[in-house]
TrEMBL record:
Ranges of residues in domain NADH:ubiquinone oxidoreductase 30kDa subunit: 35-153
Family designation: Belongs to the complex I 30 kDa subunit family.
Pfam families named in the record: Complex1_30kDa (PF00329)
PANTHER family to which the protein is assigned, alphabetical: NADH DEHYDROGENASE [UBIQUINONE] IRON-SULFUR PROTEIN 3, MITOCHONDRIAL (PTHR10884:SF14), NADH DEHYDROGENASE UBIQUINONE IRON-SULFUR PROTEIN 3 (PTHR10884)
Name of the molecule in the record: NADH-quinone oxidoreductase subunit C
């Protein structure tokens, strides 16, 4: 099974406007799609008689504060165990409306992964059965993995730069 075969099938099913930014890194096909295409696309890849992407390897949140209108994103890593092929699907949403559909109905493992992305990035997964914090305290009113805070306190003078590899 070739990556071009997967790309052609996705474009034929969903259209060229739904599958864009197609690249390949280390043999893994990567592409971007819209939030509205995630669930139907994953269902298509899961149920396809040849592809059989039936294992969710990972689901991760990302934050790009400088990408206006696409600040928050989710990367879906799926694997076809039968064909030993991996695939990465990316989708982005504005930080004002970070809503993605849940995929817990297709992959039970997504339950924990979506809760983690919500906890750390504030990504909302519509339809999730229990979208609550999983690693941080419930009282936290921020999402620690967002790039909204400076990495260091610029006013500190007690650090010796040579000790930190600078």
């Amino acid at each position: 099974m070739e990556n071009q075969q997967i790309t052609d099938a996705l474009v034929a099913q969903f259209g060229a406007e739904a599958v864009y930014g197609v690249t390949e890194s280390h043999g893994i096909l990567q592409f971007t799609t819209g939030v509205e295409n995630i669930v139907p696309m994953l269902h298509f890849l899961y149920a396809h008689p040849v592809f059989k992407f039936q294992f969710l390897t990972d689901l991760a949140g990302i934050h790009f504060p400088d990408a206006k209108g696409q600040e928050l994103g989710v990367i879906y890593h799926v694997h076809s165990l039968e064909n030993n092929v991996r695939l990465m699907i990316k989708a982005y949403a504005p930080i004002e409306a970070p809503n993605f559909p849940t995929i817990t109905g297709l992959f039970a493992a997504a339950n924990w992964m979506e809760r983690e992305a919500f906890d750390f990035y504030g990504i909302l997964f519509d339809g999730h059965p229990n979208l609550t914090r999983i690693l941080n305290m419930d009282e936290m009113d921020y999402h620690p993995m967002r790039k909204e805070y400076p990495l260091e306190d610029a006013t500190r003078h007690d650090k010796i730069d040579e000790l930190f590899g600078r």
